[in-house]
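Worked problem 6 (solution included).
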Amino acid sequence: MVKIPKKVSERLKKEIVSFQKILAAAKDRDVHESDTVTIIIDMLCNIFGFDKFTELTSEQAIRGTYCDLAIKLEGKTRFLTEVKAIGLTLKENHLRQAIGYGATNGIPWVVLTNGIDWEIYKIRFEQPVNFDLVCSFNFLELSTRKQEDLDKVFLLCKEGIEKSAIDEFHDHLQSVNRFIISAVIQSNPIVSAIRRELKKISEGVKVTEEEILNILNAEVLKRDVVQGEQALDAITRLKKAQKKQLRKKTPSTDAENASHIDITSEQ
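Solution. The predicted structure is:
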């Protein structure tokens, strides 16, 4: 995680507490969406460090409509922000609208918020368009004493964007998560290692790698990490990484050796 500069950390600790009071009062009054947008603009300036006049705009036209706010740095739109009324629960249709905005304009980062709940998404420009929830937090529950909470807010700060903190955080999530770890566990080298260790426990035991994999899938690993789109994506990413590594070692024998390091079986 990118280290937060001391000056920014001090700003966050001061402004988070201040806006927690503002948001709590606004929630009690159940303010409308336009008033929520006004609060969000002040948050983006005072907490996240953007200039109201040069780096924030509500004039991001997309197919005849407008997103609520766009964050621009050096003339380039970095984030689209879709704001809903503070008393409104964020729903999938709100997200779809925001994702549509970003996908249409080729802007990969989208923020959906009602002032209290914040959700950061990374658009995957696939067919069809898809997306990842990268980070979410409840602003009223943030603690300025917890570094983890400050790190989450920093992802959206101007200084964080300039240091590519959100990109680094997303890359970490893509590489270190339960789906990737599950795929690694099911890979041929790990299943072979398990087989060797089992034989050490009982020299006469006869166990196949297929049997071990079946036990992992059925009894050890949770169903959601071995089945479904995210599980398959993780296996695909692992295969690509393994083959890339193999090409660096033996570029002339890629096709022949790839199967030796592949996932033992498809899900």
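Discussion: The chain has a mean pLDDT of 84.
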